[in-house]
C-alpha cells in the first residue's frame, strides 16, 4: 500500500519503524510501520530512510524508477542482449554500457557474457571476491522496488509508456549493470573488435596499420571518451575553518543510461550517505557522510592489456604457448533480430576466445588484424570483478581518509577511477587504487612485443608475448584476484593543504610533492599536463594567494569559467589577427573577458578557432618543462601557420552562418527544455576550463544540445556539527522524463550558476518547503 503525505515527517528519519504523518491506521494495526520512508525535498531529491539494506535498496530502486524508468529499462534490454529484438539490428545504442556501434554488436557482446554465466558465478562468491552480503540485499531490494513502480503503472514518460520491453527485473539484472560498468573501459571498449574478429581467409585481409597511427590511437583511448572529471580536496592548512573541503565535478554524458541521479540513503545507526548514484546502482557512488566526502576522476591507468598470439602453422584458430598448441574456443552466440515485417529471426555470430581473453580485431582505432601468423586477445582483469559496489558501500561507511584508503585496499573494486577525498579532520587524499593488470615495469620490459613497447611508453597499453606462459600477469601480494596489480604499488598522497586531479596522471596531484617512481601501467610522469589540469592548479594557487578556502570560494572557482587557453593565447592571437587584417574579429577577441560564461562576447569565436588548432605542435614558443609543469608550455606563437588557418576558418564559419562574431556565448550554446531555450556556460577540454561542457555543433545555430560534461557537482565543507555545509547541482536535473517537474529545474539553476543547498540532517530535511513524504511497505 502506498500513502503520500505532504506534511512534515521529522520523526521518520530517526528510525524506519516509526510512523510518519499520514501513515494509515491499517499499517499501525498490524504492528508494523513502513519499512521505507522517502522524503522529497526541493528539486525532487529523495531522502530514503530504511530499516535494513534490503529495504534501503527497495526505496532506492522505487525512487530511481520513478524518475528515470525509460533509461533504466533501456539498460535492462541492453544487458539482456535484446536490443535487436525490439529496436532492430542496425541502430546505435546510447553507448552507456559498452562501445558497441550497433544494436546487433551490443546484443552479441552482452549475450556472450550472459551465456558464459560469469556474473552469476561472481555473484555467488562471498566477499571480498564477490558482492558483500549487504550489497546482495541492496540489489535484491533495488530490483523489488523497481518492479513495484512498474506494477503501479503510473508511467508518463512518452519514451517508454506502454512499451513491450518494460518488464520486471531480478537481482541478477542489478549485478549485470554493475559488471558492465566494471568492464566498460576494457572488454566493453572492444565490443566491436570482439564481434568482428574473424580468422583469415573468411574476410579480405586488412593492411597493416602504420605503427605511428597505432601509437596516436593509443594516446587517444581515454582522451576521446565522453567521461572525465575534476576534483579538488583541501585540508586544514588551506581552509578558513581548518577542516576539510571537497569539490567533486565529474564530466559524464547528459543523455542515455550513464547519467547520475541524486539521493540520500540512511539506515539509522549503520549508514547515512548523500550524493549521486550512476543510474541502476543501488548505492551512492560519489558523495559524503557526516565526516568524510569523496569523488572520483577517470584514471590514466588503462585497466586492460593485449596479448599477441603466435598461431600454430596451418591452423589460425590455434595458438602456441611454450611451444604447445592450444585450440581457441568458439562461441556461437545467437540473438533474436527484428525484421522489417516485425517478425523475429535468429542470427548467430561466431566469436573466438583464448585462456587470456577474447580475440579482438581492434581496440578503438588501433587495428589488430588476424593473420595466418598472429592474432590478439584482450586481457581484462575487470572481467572477474563484481566488487565495485562493495567499494562504494565501504566509502560511504568510511569516517576518515585513512579509513577510505583501507577500504579501497580491502575491496579492490574500482575499475577505472581515482579517488579524491577530504575529511572533517582536515586531511586531503588522492588515491589511485584501481584494478589494473599486474604489469610492473620490469615485467613489461621483458614481455612486451615491439608494438607493445611503443604503446606502453605512449599510453601504458601493454601488448604481451602470448607464446611465453611466464608473460601472463600473475598473482600479486595482497591482490584479491590473480592478474591484478598489488595495492601497495599504487600512488596514495595525503596532505594538509590540497590535492587535485583533472584526468591527468598521479604525477602532479600537488606540485609541491610530485608522485614519482610508479609503474608506467599506472600513468606517466614528468610529462605535459592538459590545460584543464593546469587551469585547476592555477585556480587553487590564485585562491591561496588571496587566503584560505571557504565553501563559497570553491563554488566560485568551479563556475568562474576561466579559460586558461584564452589567458595564455588571446593577446598573441589578437596580434596575429591584426597582422592578418581580419578587422572586427580582432576587436572582438581583444575585448573578450577570457571566460566562457554564457554572456561572454568573443568566447564563441575563440572556441571555434581554438578547437581547430589546440593540438598543433607549433603553438608555443616556450616548450614544456618538467621543472615548471604548471606554467609550460606558454608564449603563443603568432607565426603558427596552423593557428592562422584556424582563425580565418573560424571567422568565415561564423560569418557565413549569420552568427555575429561578438554574439554572447549563451545565444549559441544552449539546451531547449519544454520549449524554453536555456543558455549554458562552460566549454570544451581544449579551452583549459574546469567547467567542461561539450555541445553538438549545428552549422548556422551553434551548440544546440549538450552531449557531455559537468554533471553532478558537489562542494562539501565540514564545520564540526556533523551536518556538513554542502552545495550541490545536477546540471541536467533528476529526471529524463519530459513530463516530470524535475526534468529541467536544476538545468535552469546551472544556467544561472545557482546551487542547491543540501539538506543532510533531519532538522534540515524537515524544514524543506513543500516536503513530500512517501511510505512504502516491503519488500
Q: If you had to describe this structure to a student in words, what would you say it looks like?
A:
With 779 residues, the protein is an alpha+beta fold. Among the domains are: 35-193, Penicillin Amidohydrolase, domain 1 (Orthogonal Bundle), CATH 1.10.439.10; 223-270 and 283-295 and 385-439 and 475-558, Aminohydrolase, N-terminal nucleophile (Ntn) domain (Glutamine Phosphoribosylpyrophosphate, subunit 1, domain 1), CATH 3.60.20; 561-689, Penicillin amidase (Acylase) alpha subunit, N-terminal domain. 30% of the residues lie in helices and 23% in strands. The chain is built from 21 helices and 33 strands. It has an eleven-stranded mixed sheet, with helices on one face. Strand 26 and strand 27 form a beta hairpin. Helix 2 crosses helix 6 (133-152), helix 9 (211-223) runs parallel beside helix 13 (450-459) and helix 18 (603-613) crosses helix 19. The radius of gyration is 26 Å and the shape is globular.
Amino acid at each position: 500500500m502506498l500513502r503520500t503525505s505532504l506534511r512534515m515527517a521529522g520523526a521518520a528519519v530517526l528510525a524506519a519503524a516509526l510512523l510518519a504523518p499520514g501513515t494509515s491506521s491499517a499499517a499501525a494495526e498490524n504492528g508494523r510501520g513502513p519499512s521505507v520512508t522517502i522524503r522529497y525535498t526541493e528539486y525532487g531529491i529523495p531522502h530514503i530512510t530504511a530499516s535494513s539494506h534490503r529495504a534501503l535498496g527497495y526505496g532506492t530502486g522505487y525512487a530511481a524508477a520513478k524518475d528515470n524508468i525509460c533509461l533504466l529499462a533501456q539498460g535492462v534490454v541492453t544487458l539482456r542482449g535484446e536490443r535487436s529484438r525490439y529496436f532492430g539490428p542496425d541502430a546505435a545504442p546510447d553507448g552507456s554500457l559498452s562501445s558497441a556501434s550497433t544494436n546487433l554488436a551490443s546484443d552479441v557482446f552482452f549475450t556472450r557474457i550472459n551465456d558464459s554465466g560469469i556474473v552469476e558465478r561472481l555473484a555467488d562468491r562471498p566477499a571480498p571476491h564477490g558482492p558483500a552480503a549487504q550489497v546482495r540485499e541492496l540489489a535484491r531490494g533495488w530490483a523489488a522496488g523497481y518492479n513495484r513502480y512498474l506494477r503501479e503503472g503510473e508511467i508518463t514518460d512518452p519514451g517508454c509508456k506502454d512499451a513491450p520491453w518494460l518488464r520486471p527485473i531480478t537481482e541478477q539484472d542489478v549485478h549485470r549493470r554493475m559488471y558492465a560498468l566494471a568492464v566498460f573501459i576494457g572488454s566493453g571498449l572492444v565490443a566491436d573488435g570482439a564481434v568482428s574478429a574473424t580468422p583469415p581467409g573468411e574476410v579480405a585481409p586488412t593492411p597493416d596499420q602504420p605503427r605511428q597511427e597505432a601509437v596516436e590511437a593509443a594516446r587517444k583511448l581515454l582522451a576521446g571518451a565522453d567521461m572525465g572529471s575534476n576534483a579538488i580536496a583541501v585540508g586544514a592548512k588551506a581552509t578558513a575553518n581548518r577542516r576539510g573541503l571537497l569539490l567533486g565535478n565529474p564530466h559524464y554524458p547528459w543523455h542515455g543510461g550513464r547519467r547520475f541521479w541524486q539521493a540520500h540513503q540512511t539506515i539509522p545507526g549503520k549508514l547515512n550517505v548523500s550524493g549521486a548514484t550512476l543510474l541502476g546502482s543501488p548505492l551512492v557512488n560519489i558523495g559524503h557522510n557526516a565526516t568524510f566526502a569523496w569523488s572520483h576522476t577517470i584514471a590514466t591507468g588503462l585497466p586492460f592489456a593485449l596479448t599477441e598470439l603466435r598461431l600454430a602453422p596451418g591452423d589460425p584458430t590455434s595458438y602456441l604457448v611454450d611451444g604447445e598448441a592450444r585450440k581457441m574456443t568458439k562461441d556461437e552466440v545467437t540473438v533474436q533480430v527484428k525484421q522489417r515485417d516485425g517478425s523475429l529471426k535468429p542470427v548467430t555470430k561466431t566469436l573466438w576466445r583464448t585462456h587470456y581473453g577474447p580475440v579482438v580485431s581492434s581496440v578503438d582505432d588501433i587495428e589488430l588484424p588476424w593473420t595466418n601468423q598472429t592474432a590478439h586477445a584482450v586481457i581484462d582483469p575487470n572481467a572477474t570483478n563484481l566488487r565495485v559496489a562493495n567499494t562504494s558501500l565501504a566509502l560511504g561507511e568510511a569516517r576518515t581518509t585513512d579509513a577510505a584508503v583501507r577500504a579501497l585496499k580491502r575491496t579492490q573494486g574500482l575499475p577505472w577511477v581515482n579517488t579524491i577525498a577530504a575529511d572533517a579532520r582536515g586531511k586531503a587524499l588522492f588515491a589511485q587504487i584501481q584494478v589494473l593488470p599486474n604489469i610492473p615495469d620490469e615485467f613489461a620490459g621483458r614481455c612486451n612485443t615491439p608494438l607493445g613497447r611503443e604503446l606502453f611508453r605512449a599510453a601504458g597499453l601493454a601488448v604481451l608475448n602470448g607464446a611465453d606462459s611466464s608473460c601472463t600477469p600473475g598473482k600479486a601480494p595482497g591482490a584479491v584476484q590473480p592478474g591484478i596489480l598489488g595495492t601497495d604499488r599504487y600512488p596514495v598522497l595525503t596532505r594538509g593543504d590540497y590535492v587535485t586531479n583533472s584526468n591527468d596522471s598521479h604525477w602532479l596531484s600537488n606540485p609541491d610533492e610530485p608522485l614519482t617512481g610508479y609503474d608506467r601501467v599506472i600513468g606517466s610522469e614528468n610529462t605535459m599536463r592538459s590545460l584543464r589540469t593546469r587551469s585547476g592548479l592555477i585556480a587553487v594557487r590564485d585562491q591561496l594567494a588571496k587566503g584560505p578556502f571557504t565553501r563559497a570560494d570553491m563554488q566560485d572557482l568551479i563556475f568562474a569559467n576561466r579559460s586558461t587557453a584564452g589567458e595564455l593565447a588571446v593577446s598573441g592571437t589578437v596580434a596575429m589577427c591584426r597582422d592578418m587584417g581580419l578587422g572586427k574579429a580582432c576587436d572582438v577577441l581583444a575585448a573578450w573577458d577570457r571566460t566562457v560564461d554564457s554572456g561572454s562576447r568573443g568566447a564563441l569565436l575563440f572556441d571555434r578557432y581554438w578547437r581547430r588548432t589546440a593540438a598543433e605542435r607549433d603553438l608555443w614558443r616556450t616548450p614544456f618543462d618538467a621543472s615548471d609543469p604548471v606554467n609550460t608550455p606558454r608564449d603563443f606563437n603568432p607565426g603558427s601557420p596552423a593557428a592562422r588557418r584556424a582563425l580565418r576558418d573560424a571567422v568565415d564559419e561564423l560569418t557565413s552562418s549569420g552568427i555575429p562574431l561578438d554574439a554572447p556565448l549563451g545565444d549559441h550554446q544552449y539546451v531547449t527544455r519544454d520549449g524554453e531555450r536555456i543558455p549554458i556556460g562552460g566549454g570544451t577540454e581544449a579551452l583549459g576550463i574546469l567547467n567542461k561542457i561539450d555541445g553538438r555543433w549545428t552549422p548556422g545555430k551553434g551548440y544546440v544540445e549538450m552531449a557531455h560534461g559537468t554533471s553532478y557537482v558537489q562542494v562539501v565543507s565540514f564545520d564540526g556539527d556533523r551536518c556538513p555545509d554542502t552545495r550541490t547541482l545536477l546540471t541536467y536535473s533528476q529526471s529524463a522524463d519530459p513530463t516530470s517537474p524535475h526534468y529541467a529545474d536544476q538545468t535552469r539553476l546551472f544556467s544561472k550558476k545557482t546551487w542547491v543547498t543540501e539538506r543532510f540532517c533531519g532538522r534540515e530535511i524537515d524544514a524543506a518547503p513543500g516536503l513530500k513524504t512517501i511510505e512504502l511497505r516491503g519488500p
